[in-house]
Write a structure and sequence with these properties.
The complex is a heterodimer. By secondary structure, chain A is an alpha/beta fold. Helix content of chain A is 37%, strand content 10%. Chain A has twelve helices and five strands. The chains are: A alpha/beta, B alpha+beta.
């Protein structure tokens, strides 16, 4: 049986820890099926062999932090028919966006022996601030089952099932007891985008918000609740400043408490 | 109904053995991660002996009791709907055959459950869901098969929780019907026993095989006294008089904006509600495109996708979503199913992370309501 030419996949890295693109290699059982349906054409983390573009599907990991990367992402967009960003760095600027709240020149002067060699932007920004993005997959790191779902949906030309509602719905479906109500543990679940399967509360820890803001996050009401239970302004600001610190609803909420 | 009988505490495990020998999987209260939930029980040792729960808006805490009560608490975060209609279930699979495909139906052998420790409000919740899932032409077949085979062993409430208001909703604390057996736990200074009542032939048959004896009048009176105590100590109350018209005629009340400022639209209230029945359907294909599956998942009117029609969500604001939920639960449910959708179990109050309390919301609207005029047509607000 002759098969129609397989779609070409490219995986691109910007400022990131590589964890999200490794989720693809982490697919293990399903990896052969993926390779059977899609031609892995550009994936330096997996193979040195590079097949020339253009590419049908580009997965972009990482944020834009240097002038060079700001140019490179334009080139990636030009050679990609469909561009999907994966992970908190690519969708929100990542943990490195903490620099956005401070003066990056000051960091550079303290950290590096020769600051003159460092050419970096003041802000770490998500890919969608630079080029048009077809779909954003959340998470720090992304959930590999969701990545498979997104690739499967791309191949079948359908909408991926990646609901934008709260993490609480995942907790309740799996039967996890609410850590906030039953344990008094602060938890970002009610304002956090579903997708991880509510892992942390199932180990009786509060949600850290790795998947960023849910569709309609009422961060103000969450903060008010924590304040009543004795949380300081500083603590509240820090809760919202992690992997998705630059995602607008979290950024605005943290700025309200950062005085 | 037969006359009531008495079973001593140390005979309770006989009930477990009897049910297991009849092939029942016993589901009942047990402790998990700081709460009393419903799960499979192997024996009476799995029950939360000596524990109680303290509940208020947004707060649930387990506390040690001063006695060895087995059912000395009220309701927790789980409801029986979890077992009657699982929160995630595959409806069917499809396999590709060349250019065609065929459907593989799900052939579930329904589990045979014995639900132990069902409270009066929960028996009412099941009756409400029966109307939703079994009335009319189309049935929820999973629910139907599980519900029909399930044995209901009620436990009469002898204490009320901080967020309970079943008395207001006329759903408790005493269950009068809807059970196969109903137990009332009585702890006296030197005695611990259950007054047992059967509600069905099935229940009577089970009793016949247990170590019981006819209840004395004094024992029945002790049980009744305790149930009355629960009725007199409800943590919350809701004035239901004219509540349907009150909510329907106050669609534009300023209180909806106020509650929307606090509401997280996280959906916890709907997930823990024993009568909320909404679900969504997800179609998935695998990476090869050779296999497809359709899944039904518990959903909530608090998500944007829930009211997504062509072009966007109909209820885009939290105000409209909270209003929809509360108005449906307490008002339009009556139009739809001839009864209220609320049983007064209080779960939505306890498990709301920011302690929104529907009894307070209704009261606030009642205090400053406009009952005279018809609902005005809204402009620009959704």
């Amino acid at each position: 049986m002759t098969k129609i030419e397989k779609p070409k996949l490219a995986v691109w890295k910007f400022a990131s820890c590589d964890g999200c693109q490794l989720s693809l290699l982490d697919c293990e059982d399903e990896l052969l099926s993926v390779a059977g349906e899609i031609e892995i054409a550009h994936f330096p983390e997996a193979t040195r062999q590079v097949i020339k573009g253009p590419y049908d599907l580009s997965l972009v990991e990482g944020s834009i932090t240097t002038p060079e990367d700001a140019k490179r992402i334009q080139e990636v967009r030009r050679v990609s028919k469909t561009l999907i960003t994966i992970g908190a760095c690519a969708t929100a600027g990542g943990v490195q966006a903490l620099r956005n709240f401070k003066d990056v020149k000051e960091f550079v002067s303290i950290v590096y022996a020769n600051p003159a060699y460092i050419d970096t932007l003041n802000h770490s920004t998500p890919i969608a601030e630079h080029v048009a993005v077809d779909f954003e997959l959340r998470g720090c790191p992304i959930n590999k089952m969701q990545l498979l779902e997104v690739i499967s949906a791309f191949l079948a030309n359908r909408k991926p099932n990646t609901p934008a509602h709260s993490t609480c719905i995942e907790c309740k479906r799996r039967g996890t007891v609410c850590v906030m109500v039953a344990g008094g543990t602060p938890c970002l679940g009610p304002v956090t985008h579903a997708g991880c399967g509510a892992i942390c509360p199932s180990y009786q820890r509060g949600c850290y918000g790795c998947f960023g803001p849910m569709e309609t996050p009422n961060t103000l009401s969450m903060s008010e609740g924590w304040k009543t239970s004795g949380a300081s302004e500083d603590e509240i600001a820090r809760v919202f400043r992690t992997f998705n610190a630059w995602a607008e609803p979290f950024r605005k909420e943290s700025e309200t408490h950062d005085k | 109904m037969s006359d009531q009988v008495v079973m001593e505490r140390n005979e309770l495990n006989g009930l477990f053995t009897a049910l297991q020998s009849q092939g029942y999987t016993i589901i009942g209260p047990t402790i998990l991660d700081g709460a009393i939930v419903y799960d499979e029980l192997a024996s009476d040792k799995d029950l939360p002996e000596g524990w109680t729960d303290e509940q208020d808006g947004g707060i649930y805490r387990l506390k040690k009791r001063f006695d060895k009560a087995l059912f000395g608490f009220v309701v927790g975060p789980y409801t029986w709907k979890r077992f009657l209609d699982p929160p995630e279930k595959r409806l069917w699979r499809a396999e590709r055959d060349g250019k065609d495909f065929h459907i593989v139906p799900e052939n579930e052998t329904p589990p045979k459950y014995a639900f132990l420790g069902v409270r009066s409000c929960e028996i009412h919740a099941m009756a409400i869901q029966d109307r939703v899932f079994l009335q009319g032409e189309y049935h929820n077949t999973t629910y139907k098969s599980r519900r029909e085979s399930a044995l209901i062993i009620g436990v009469q409430c002898v204490q009320a929780g901080g967020t309970c208001f079943c008395v207001s909703m006329n759903t408790g604390p005493k269950a009068l019907s809807g059970f196969d057996l109903a137990l009332t736990e009585v702890i006296e200074e030197n005695r611990h026993y259950f007054v047992v009542e059967s509600g069905t032939i099935r229940g009577e048959t089970i009793i016949a095989g247990l170590a019981v004896r006819p209840a004395k009048k004094t024992e029945v009176a002790e049980a009744e006294k305790r149930i009355s105590h629960a009725a007199e100590n409800m943590g919350r109350s809701l004035n239901t008089e004219g509540v349907r018209d009150l909510l329907v005629k106050n669609h534009d009340h300023a209180r909806w904006d106020e509650v929307a400022n606090r509401c997280l639209s996280c959906a916890n209230c709907t997930m823990v509600c024993p009568t909320c029945f909404c679900s969504t359907v997800e179609d998935v294909t695998d990476i090869t495109g050779e296999h497809a599956e359709r899944w039904q998942k518990q959903d909530s009117c608090f998500t944007l996708d829930f009211s997504y029609l062509h072009g966007g969500s109909v209820r885009s604001s939290t105000r409209s979503r909270y209003r929809q939920w509360l108005t449906h639960k307490l008002a339009t449910w009556i139009d739809q199913f001839d009864e209220s959708g609320c049983t007064g179990c209080g779960r939505c109050i306890t498990w709301c992370p920011v302690a929104i309390d529907l009894t307070e919301e209704v009261e606030a609207i009642r205090k400053s309501s406009s009952m005279e005029s018809d609902p005005p047509i809204e402009k620009g607000k959704s």
